Amino acid sequence: MPVSMKKSNINPMPPFFDRYINLVEDIDIFDAFEKYSPQKVYSEVEKLTDLEDKVYAPGKWTVKDILQHIIDNERIMAYRALRFSRNDKTALPGYEEAELAANTVASKRSVTDLLEEFNLLRQTTILLFKNMSDEMILNPGNANNIEISALALGFVIIGHPVHHMNIIRERYFPLL
After folding, report:
1. What pTM did the predictor assign?
2. CATH of the domain at 169
C-alpha cells in the first residue's frame, strides 16, 4: 500500500485533468477516497431521485445519465491507472463521453441502482490502489496525449464526481 501519497505528490500536474484533481484537498489518497466517497458526495438521494429524468435545458443529460457517466469514467480512469502502475508505456487514447452516454440503459435504471453500482465500483477502485507500491502509483503514462501518473488518475477518480455534483446542485436542484 502506498505510504501517504497526497495530491501535492502529483508532479507534473496534468493539464485538463487538474480541474478534477483540484477539487480534492491535499490529503492522503485513501483519506480522500473516504472523505469523497460516493455515499458522501451523493448523499442527497431523495433530491437526486426526484430529478432522475429531468434536464435543465434541451439536450442535457439527466441525473441518471450523469451517474452512468461517472461510473463509466471511473472504470476508464482505473483501467489507465492499472496499466500505468504496471509500467505499461503504451499511449492510451481518449474516449468520447457523448458516444458512451448515448449508448447506455441509464434511462431504464433507478438512481438507487446507479448509486449501488457506483459504491461497489469505488470499493474495487480502492482495492486496486491499495495494491500499488509507491513506485507503481507514481508511474507516469500517456492518456489522450497527456502525461499523467496513476496517483493523478486516483485524484481524478475522486474529484470527477465532485465536479458533477457541483453541476447538479447548481443547475438541477433549482428544478425542484
Report:
1. 0.97
2. 1.20.120.450
What are 75-98's pLDDT values in tens digits? Answer: 999 999 999 999 999 999 999 999
**Structural domain includes residue 152:** yes
ω into 174 cis (within 30 of 0): no
SS3 state of residue 176? coil
Residue 136: inside a domain = yes
Cα gap 29→88, rounded to integer Å: 22
Query: Any residues with CB less than 8 A from the CB of 87 and at least 6 apart, and which?
Result: 136, 139
Is the predicted pLDDT of residue 3 greater than 70, yes or no? no
Which residue's C-alpha cell is 491535499?
26
The H-assigned helical ranges of 53-149 are: 63-85, 97-102, 111-130, 134-138
